[in-house]
Write a structure and sequence with these properties.
Oligomer: heterodimer
Number of helices of chain B: 11
Largest sheet of chain A: none
CATH topology of the largest domain in chain A: MetI-like fold
Largest interface: A-B, 24 and 35 residues
Strand content of chain B: 25-35%
Radius of gyration of chain A: 27 Å
Helix content of chain A: over 70%
Order of helices and strands of chain A: HHHHHHHHHHHH
Shape of chain A: globular
CATH class of the domain at 13-103 and 178-257 in chain B: Alpha Beta
Largest sheet of chain B: 6 strands, mixed
């Protein structure tokens, strides 16, 4: 240190000052630009919510949210569509979650690298690249034409199962790989079997991330349209709008939004469209917020962590 | 445990012994022809420079290499008169009898109580009162009871590093193992926590056989009865700790303990 200060300083000092000023300016500009880019995400979301909210707010009346849709006259509601959205979502998660979690546990905890594991991984990645509208046509061919189910909630849910399986598999794998190996070693070193280690240590440690991931995907399923147009249909049963039978025709809220704007002949298209968009947005945002809350609560429940 | 009544009284009895043991990682021979006797209710320290194979040796003693793809153990490891790599040996039973404490504290993300009773639980103990008694005994043996008795239902992750490591020791002794393996258990801890762990190891030999890997020669000198010096995958020298540190027979041992390499 003392050697440095004792050197003849003036020349180096001047040069350094100039360099520092340029670098400081560059640093300041970079900071502002990067901050602006990050902030733009908030601005976009806020603008989007405010605009949709402004347009749709007046439509949110009880008769709209809980009423049944009308074919030709004004004043139709979206009650059955909201019901169908949840119906198909729950059915889809019932199919997808066990398959994805089981497959994910196998790939992460049992399978050795290479061979079968690579094939499953490659298949999942390929499946993930299939556009949802193509998956919808696949569902049309299989469930509607081959099985003669017509348009059904079950057909829609099965199509969405295939569509979302890769994402849920990835969520499972990421949640499991976030569990440190030292915990697996600790359990095995206490004489735990592999299965005990997975069920008592690995899965409880991963449950928070797993749930967060599942609920985020649930938000996507809730907003899915293309894959459902050809499989779950564009209408609700007039005399039985809240049908428990999985073989009922089940237009969801997102599909309804598309349908009213493209095909419908009712006079109050804009009101229904704006209102549906707002309800859909609120639901999806609720899923996002809910995902965090539930994930945190489950982590606390299973790990005893107070924070 | 009720299976070995008499032999624990003879202090020189051998509890665990490796005979001409080789450990491979793929084709790399990490441990070469290691033969070592570890005495019951004694502390055996394994010392040597980084990469000398002491941790690899330790992990062979409770079949932890089973979990590492490509790792292979040859030769035999006798626990009393049973070869733990024998055809009839069950790793689950072996690891019940031989506990392990790792380099970094690795408590489960569960409550303090659930950490301690994890072992007994997975081996089938369901009775709440029995589990409570085990938890108290184990935490007392690990010198942690007084610090945590009022917050057993709090997360183990809220404990300090030193407390977490003593919790891991409690978790190991909860199973009443015959042998406890320790892989540099204090290397991630501050000096005060380290000295607590060292005191604890001294007390553990009342009931347990301890084998400890350490990179600290002072620690080996303070806590162990016997010391084995490892170098390049071989056991260079083994003997009473006093003798190893004052009158080593091998040149390499002397060079290492006098700080000429390592």
């Amino acid at each position: 240190m003392s050697a440095t200060t004792a050197e003849p300083a003036p020349v180096r000092g001047v040069a350094a000052t100039g360099g520092v000023r340029v670098r400081k300016t560059a640093d300041a500009i970079a900071t502002v630009v990067l901050w602006a880019m990050a902030s733009s995400i908030i601005v976009m979301l806020a603008a989007f919510i405010i605009y949709i909210g402004y347009l749709g707010w007046s439509a949110l009346t009880p008769s709209f949210i809980f009423g049944v849709p009308k074919e030709t006259t004004a004043g139709g509601g979206i009650g059955p569509e909201i019901y169908n959205s949840f119906y198909i979502l729950i059915l889809t998660l019932l199919f997808t979650t066990p398959i994805a979690v089981a497959a994910g546990v196998f790939l992460q905890e049992y399978a050795r690298p290479g061979g079968f594991r690579s094939i499953v991984q490659f298949s999942a990645e390929s499946l993930a690249t299939v556009p949802s509208v193509v998956m919808g046509l696949f569902g049309l061919l299989v469930f509607v034409y081959t099985f003669h189910w017509k348009y059904t909630a079950l057909g829609g849910a099965l199509t969405l199962t295939v569509l979302n399986l890769p994402a849920l598999l990835r969520v499972t794998q990421e949640a499991l790989s976030s569990v440190p190996d030292s915990l697996r070693e600790a359990s095995m070193a206490l004489g735990g079997t592999k299965w005990q280690t997975i069920t008592r240590v690995v899965l409880p440690s991963a449950i928070g991330r797993l749930t967060t991931g599942i609920v985020l995907i649930a938000g996507r399923i809730f907003g899915e349209t293309a894959a459902l147009i050809f499989t779950a249909g564009l209408s609700v049963t007039a005399n039985k709008p809240y049908d428990l039978n999985p073989f009922h025709t089940a237009e969801t809220l997102a599909v309804h939004l598309w349908y009213t704007h493209s095909e419908s002949v009712v006079p109050d298209v804009d009101r229904i469209g704006n209102g549906s968009a707002l309800v859909l947005l609120i639901m999806v945002l609720a899923f996002n917020v809910g995902a965090r809350l539930i994930g945190r609560a489950l982590t606390k429940r299973f790990t005893g962590r107070s924070s | 445990m009720d299976t070995q009544p008499a032999e624990t009284s003879t202090t020189a009895a051998v509890k665990i012994e490796t005979k001409d043991m080789n450990v491979f990682y793929g084709s790399f021979l990490a441990i070469k022809h290691a033969s070592l006797k570890m005495k019951a209710q004694h502390v055996t320290a394994l010392i040597g420079p980084s990469g000398c194979g002491k941790s690899t040796f330790l992990r062979a003693l409770n079949r932890m290499h089973d979990l590492t793809p490509g790792a292979q153990v040859e030769g035999c490891v006798m626990l009393d008169d049973q070869d733990i790599y024998g055809a009839d040996a069950d790793p689950v039973v072996i690891r019940h009898r031989i506990g392990m404490v790792f380099q970094r504290p690795n408590p489960f993300p569960k409550t303090i109580y659930e950490n301690v009773v994890y072992g007994p639980r997975i081996h089938g103990e369901r009775d709440r009162r029995a589990l409570d008694a085990i938890a108290e005994r184990a935490l007392r043996q690990a010198a942690l009871w007084d610090e945590v008795k009022d917050r057993l239902q709090r997360s183990a992750l809220d404990l300090s590093g030193g407390q977490q490591q003593r919790l891991c020791i409690a978790r190991a002794v909860a199973l009443n193992p015959e042998v406890i393996l320790m892989d540099e258990p204090a290397s991630a801890l501050d000096p005060i926590a380290t000295s607590k762990i060292e005191d604890l190891i001294g007390q553990l030999t009342d009931e347990y056989t301890v084998v400890i890997v350490t990179h600290s020669m002072q620690q080996a000198a303070r806590i162990s009865d016997d010391t084995a010096f490892f170098h390049l995958g071989e056991i260079v020298e083994v003997g009473p700790t006093n003798q190893i540190f004052t009158h080593p027979k091998e040149k390499r041992t002397e060079d290492y303990i006098t700080g000429r390499f390592g």
